[in-house]
Amino acid sequence: MTLRADHAAGSAFVAFGALVIALSSDLPTGQLSMPGAGFLPKIVATLTIVFGLMLILRAGESAPFVSLGWSDGKHAVMVCLITAVAIFLYTQLGFIITMGAMIVTLLVIIERRNPLYAAGYSAGIVLLTYLCFETVLKTPLPEAPFRF
Amino acid sequence: METTLLSLAHGFVIAFQPDNLWYAFLGCLVGTLVGVLPGIGPLSGISILLPVTFGLNATQAVIMLAGIYYGSQYGGSTTSILMRIPGEASSVMTCIDGNAMARNGRAGAALCIAAVGSWVAGTFGVLVLTVVAPPLATIALKFGPPEYTALLVLGLIFLAYMSSTSLVRTLLMACIGLLLGMIGIDNMTGHFRYAFDLPELGDGIGIVPVAVGLFGLGEILATPSHKVSGEVIKPKLRELLPNRQEWREATWPMARGTVLGFIIGIIPGSAHIISSFLSYALERRVSKHPERFGNGAIAGVAGPEAANNSASTGAFVPMLALGIPTGPITAVLIGALMMHGVNAGPQLVTEHPDVFWGFVASMYVGNLMLLALNLPLVGLFVSVLRIPYAYLYPLIIMFCIVGVYEVSHSIVDVWIMLIMGIVGYVLRKFSFDPAPLVLGLVIAPLFEQSLRQSLIMSNGNYLIFVSRPISAGLLIVCLILLGLSVLAFMLKRRDWRTQLAEAEAAETQ
After folding, report:
1. Residue B175: what pLDDT?
2. CA-to-CA distance for B126 and B144, rounded, in angstroms?
3. What is the three-state SS of A7-70?
4. Which of B107, B129, B321, B427 has its CA 20 to 30 A from that of B268?
């Protein structure tokens, strides 16, 4: 049997629904006349499992799993990693340093741009945004420990 | 009617205040840019700029954010016509004939017809909104929990029925959205649900991190820069005016698209996307020369552009009158109003007339501004389109992070955005539309509360939903729609939804 995209997707949704039901075990379901906190989550999780199974049953209409194009996967992983590091450092190093470094890294590592141009572009954009938020919009952005 | 006109006049007094005019202009300009730029749609644009409105009052905030929404519908056509890339999802159909016209040397005429069509439709939409929303709000005051429950179920079923993906896929997405919307403290019992000891999750998952992640970051992850074409056709200013024949051929499609778009806009779902497709299909069917479609038929630009603008205005009717979002964008707008202490819904007209009428009047002004902006500034937008995508997307990621963080100064929200970005990327790979997920997330609290209140009211008797005429009527419509979907599935009929999915797939390749 060929593994199809909807086999994988349906199984993931069935597993997710089952996980939600397992996590809801300590939530009271209540009664129909007084539904508890777990009442609707359990119904919706059950529906998720049912729809997931329907997806699996009709998976023959979907494309084979191996034919899914992942050519952009490397780009996606790189962007995610760089963004994750930037988020981790955002409140610690402040807006200017983190965002400046993130834009330079994205441009140099992923887009293979000239580091000098990338640094100039990044500095200009980040400083302009910082000034715009701080002075025009009066919305403070995270600052570095040494107020930079 | 006299009261409506007097209230509208009061709205114009508010809309013409210099501050409000400025925010309407700013919203329209940013909206046009959001529509022009591929990879950033109105939802991520509004979400990212939401924190910027914190310093404004509710009227200014909603005027600016709504300006971004309908401005993006105008701007989306520019990229479609000049680059054959839909700057915004609802401009997919404009790509086909708009770009063909541009290649035939009629780029200016296509842009002008798109702008005028958008203006006509936008203004018509606001006129109907002015007349329809206040009486609808009066009727909605009679709604109780069972009616709201039935209305929200109808919204979800309608969304599933109208969606270009299958019914099961749409309902699955809506279920995931509903489950995400149940994270946090249960309002009725005080139980913590799925918060994993994170105090930031006590208030639940916000719309903004989810919407920005799924639609903003998700789009960037799925779009490597080498896939974005940089070829832009630059129209000459003197070629902007269509000739008499083109005006004649565009008039009726504009009118039909306007009415069709408004009606579809009121219905929950991605109305502005669906309306442009239906308008295109309608124009091709009624045309005496259907063979011209795909080769530069002006009706293929005028109809869909009018329809998507009219639909975006139509979506404000249930939002303002009932407090119910018809899609993720109106959901974020309702959230924005709530952040300013204003609840959208039946009481909005009576309790906050300045916000309601100021907003409605500003839309008349905003549509005029957009017409003035789009044609003379087309050269500027062409220049923006020439910025390489490789330089653009790091900027968008920066605004995603800043925008999400600034909503509640929570880094957990930013992590949620990143996770949702990855989820959005994977969902795209498996052909799932993330819009129902956001809609489910938004309506989850209202749906759960109204369902549980209904059951408490009836002492656990489900018949309460069929014993009240309004909720029974709404549930009958649900059954009809489900029946139609099952019938279409059993007959394996290739209807307009299949065609929409094919058109979207063809344009995104």
Report:
1. 94
2. 28
3. HHHHHHHHHHHHHHHHHCCCCCCEECCEECCCHHHHHHHHHHHHHHHHHHHCHHHCCEHHHCCC
4. B427
Whether A87 has a pLDDT exceeding 90, the answer reads yes
Closest Cα partner for B344 from B312, B317, B310? B317
Query: Does position A52 have pLDDT exceeding 90, yes or no?
Result: yes
pLDDT at B270: 58
Partner residue opposite B221 with nearest CB, options A37, A79, A125: A79
Q: What are the structural domain ranges in chain B? A: 2-140+185-442
Global pTM value: 0.81
d(CA A17, CA B274): 30
Report the pLDDT value the prediction gives residue A80, as an integer from 0 to 100. Answer: 96
* pLDDT at res. B384: 77
Q: Decide: residue B494, CB within 10 A, 0-12 exposed, 13-18 middle, 19+ buried.
A: exposed
Does the distance separating the beta carbons of A113 and B456 come in below 8 Å? no
Nearest to B179 among A37, A41, A54 (CB): A41
User: Which regions of chain B are under pLDDT 50?
Assistant: 508-509
Q: Which residues contact B404 (CB under 8 A, 6 or more apart)?
A: B47, B48, B208, B209, B212, B213, B413, B414, B417
DSSP string, B288-323: S-GGGTTTT-THHHHHHHHHHHHHHHHTHHHHHHH-
Number of A to B CB contacts under 8 A, please give it: 155
DSSP E strands in B103-170: the ranges are: none
Residue among A74, A69, A83 nearest B217 (CA): A83
